[in-house]
């Protein structure tokens, strides 16, 4: 077993368990474009309840979910405030400019967190020759900030600010489940402050495919129309929705195990002075650490580790990212940390 690959690139590489596959195989299905898939309908009802919103829409990916939110909350020419390291700004391939004809206005946060005070100067005045600010997007947990949790009191302050100005607030909650399990704050408590929330089932929850956008009935109805336009109208999607339902029932509480694994990994890495790590960011299932002091590039370090059967990913130009998940054990994670710490 000593030569097996320990793949900690991402929690998206997780394989459906046997029990999840069985639940998927047995799911009753129908044509969801006609609204007739009972499993999709059940999932949407359940996710809406969990997040305390009137409606939910099952979509193929987290990117589509975020892009639908931007589409329904903006008009062409508007501006959307995001954090500079956010997924929407970095990994969605200019989707907002292509699909919604809006401009993003990135602000620099601290470990992914924007403060309410930063927002006022970023909101455009209502002059006719300036773009209209219509939406603010936050991310919880924050991916590039190493899975850091957004503090609830800051979310509340941002909500008060956005409400006073009539701006919409969207949460990219791809890993809201991790934030909730780690903080003890329910998904509903986080979600109440947002107009729409996107959640993923295909990350730490271990389902093969799928995300959901939740929000008010009329907003989600408009998102359903755009989902079709974006090519995301699915037919017997209950097969994959069943994986998401199974994950919600069986794989949420266990995220705390992934968080313990990430802590163990980070603590071992922190023992090596060449690997710099901000332990404050190690709050959920990710560990981002800086490798500048190794004197090597991220590509070089990744290649060396891969030759030793440890697969990590690039976080940014000088940092690597390790993600814990359902398919790596505590023992494997500790072994991977040992290899990383000893190699440099
Ligand atoms: C993974 C991720 C998404 C969306 O990802 P898909 O690969 O499209 O499902 C969105 N936001 C964050 C923060 C993510 O980590």
Task: Show unreliable segments.
Answer: none
Hetero groups in this structure are: pyridoxal-5'-phosphate
Total separate domains? 2
Strand content: 15-25%
Identify the strand order in the major beta sheet. Answer: 2-8-7-6-5-3-4
Q: Multimeric state of these chains?
A: single chain
Mean pLDDT: 97
Structural class: alpha/beta
User: Count the helices. How many?
Assistant: 14
Structural account:
The chain is an alpha/beta fold. It has 2 domains: 18-250, Type I PLP-dependent aspartate aminotransferase-like (Major domain) (Aspartate Aminotransferase, domain 2), CATH 3.40.640; 254-343, Aspartate Aminotransferase, domain 1. It has 14 helices and 13 strands. It has a 7-stranded mixed beta sheet with strand order 2-8-7-6-5-3-4, with helices on both faces. Strands 9-10-13-12 form a 4-stranded antiparallel beta sheet. Helix 1 (18-25) crosses helix 11, helix 3 packs across helix 10 and helix 12 runs parallel beside helix 14 (330-343). The protein is globular. Pyridoxal-5'-phosphate binds at residues 61-63, 66, 87, 139, 143, 172, 174, 200, 202-203, 211.
Keywords:
binds pyridoxal-5'-phosphate, Aspartate Aminotransferase, domain 1, 344 residues, alpha/beta, Aspartate Aminotransferase, domain 2, 14 helices, globular, 2 domains
What is the secondary structure topology, with strand pairs?
Elements: E1 6-7, H1 18-25, H2 38-50, E2 55-59, H3 62-73, E3 79-83, H4 87-90, H5 95-99, E4 103-107, H6 116-119, E5 133-139, H7 152-165, E6 168-173, H8 176-183, H9 187-191, E7 196-200, E8 211-215, H10 217-229, H11 238-250, H12 255-270, E9 276-277, E10 286-290, H13 298-307, E11 310-311, E12 313-316, E13 319-323, H14 330-343
Parallel strand pairs: 1-11, 3-4, 3-5, 5-6, 6-7
Antiparallel strand pairs: 2-8, 7-8, 9-10, 10-13, 12-13
The protein binds pyridoxal-5'-phosphate.
């Amino acid at each position: 077993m000593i030569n097996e690959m320990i793949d900690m690139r991402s929690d998206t590489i997780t394989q459906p368990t046997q029990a999840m596959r069985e639940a998927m195989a047995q799911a009753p299905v129908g044509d969801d474009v006609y609204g007739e898939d009972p499993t999709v309908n059940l999932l949407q009802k359940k996710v809406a309840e969990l997040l305390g919103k009137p409606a939910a829409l099952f979509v193929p990916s987290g990117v589509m979910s975020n892009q639908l939110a931007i589409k329904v909350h903006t008009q062409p020419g508007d501006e959307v405030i995001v954090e500079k390291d956010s997924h929407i700004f970095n990994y969605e391939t200019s989707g907002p400019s292509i699909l919604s004809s809006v401009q993003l206005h990135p602000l620099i946060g601290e470990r992914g967190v924007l403060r309410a005070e930063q927002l006022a100067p970023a909101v455009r005045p209502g002059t006719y020759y300036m773009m209209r600010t219509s939406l603010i997007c936050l991310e919880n947990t924050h991916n590039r900030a190493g899975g850091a949790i957004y503090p609830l009191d800051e979310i509340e302050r941002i909500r008060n600010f956005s409400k006073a100005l009539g701006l919409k607030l969207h949460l990219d909650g791809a890993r809201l489940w991790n934030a909730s399990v780690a903080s003890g704050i329910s998904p509903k408590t986080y979600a109440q402050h947002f107009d729409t929330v996107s959640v993923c089932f295909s990350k730490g929850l271990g389902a093969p495919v799928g995300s959901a956008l939740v929000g008010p009935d009329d907003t989600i109805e408009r998102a359903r129309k755009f989902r079709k336009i974006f090519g995301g109208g699915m037919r017997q999607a209950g097969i994959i929705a069943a994986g998401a339902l199974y994950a919600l029932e069986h794989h949420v509480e266990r995220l705390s195990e992934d968080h313990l694994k990430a802590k163990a990994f980070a603590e071992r890495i922190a023992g090596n002075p060449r690997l710099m790590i901000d332990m404050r960011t190690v709050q959920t299932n990710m560990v981002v650490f800086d490798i500048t002091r190794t004197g090597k590039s991220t590509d070089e370090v990744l290649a060396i580790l891969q030759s030793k059967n440890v697969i990590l990913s690039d976080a940014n130009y000088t940092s690597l990212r390790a993600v814990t998940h359902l398919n790596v054990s505590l023992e494997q994670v500790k072994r991977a940390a040992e290899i990383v710490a000893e190699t440099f």
